[in-house]
Amino acid sequence: MTPHPFTLLTNPRFQANEAYGEHRSTLLSASALARAQTVISTWPGYAVTRLCALPALARTAGVASIHYKDEGSRFGLGSFKGLGGAYAVARLLCRELGQRLKRNVNPADLQNDPVLRQACADITVTCATDGNHGRSVAWGAQMLGCRCVIYIHATVSEGRKDAIERYGAQVVRTSGNYDESVQQADRDAKANGWFVISDTSYPGYMDVPRDVMQGYQLMVHEAVCAQPQWPTHVFVQAGVGGFAAAVCAYFWERSAEQRPVFVVVEPERADCLLQSARAGEVTAVKGDLDTLMAGLACGEVSLLAWQILATGANAFCSIPDAAAVDTMRLLASPQGGDPVIVAGESAVAGLAAALLTAQDSAARSALGLGPDSRVLLFGSEGDTDPALYQQLVGRSAAQVLADGAAA
Prior knowledge:
single chain; 407 residues; alpha/beta; 13% strand
């Protein structure tokens, strides 16, 4: 891994032995995860995604092990987002139809009950997206029979736009950045009686993002069940923070004393969580948020996520785009017998930060990285923008996999 400049901020508010607590249990909990697992595991195409051991890379980094949870095959959507957005659509439809029909509605009934299917057709869900969340919401809407309108901002690629449209959604491109598209989706939803399925929370809007985050925890549970040992370090990339908070909460709830060192990783041009940690309060990052890591190009922190990460994260790290590109190429052309992995630009930020900090003596010391460390990472997407992946890696995903099989 080529050295790149990065920023590492140890969290001044981190409390080593702070209990997870009743309040956080209302946000994310083992019982809510069990409900999500019951629903999601019945969907067509559900399968546990692979956890890849990377022993050669671990030796290079000077740690005991590196495990990478590869979400590129999730539901054929290419990312972990299939666990969150679609689950939130199901939960929203159950709540709304339950009120309209004066009956209890279970998620399993949505695909089989003709009365519910007809009622779903009168409901429209919407959200703003960099690509993957919108694809999940559109897929969930198509699966469950409701209408869908997705907002994308100015710099979202045509490839990501086309991928969303393939699931029957109407896609609206807005000017401005991601956070402005969130605001546009919210305004239009209020004007049209639509329901916002957002992965970010704000005052007065908490239930749906909580459902999104709870769906994400199934991925964490799968990874932990597949690991031979409890990890000592977890590096997780973040946009608004919901994904990172879901991972952090999973470990925190189960063991406040033995939870892994938890590092939140962001692009250097969209580091709202790092800046919030530095300021000691939620802080927005303005501007165009121009980063290759499109799924992480967010300038405003999810309030629900901050309730977990403000004191639950050990450190916050920001990295340049070049580090992400190097890591994509490293996974596509591994050394020492490690498996070939197709990873998109937003998938690799956690791994990039782990490798960069492992090369830096001060960072290693600050994070307690050493020869006994067991590092867990979540590869949140595959080549969700195939054209961009080929441009950055130099080969298509199919070529990468074919070369790996031939090696």
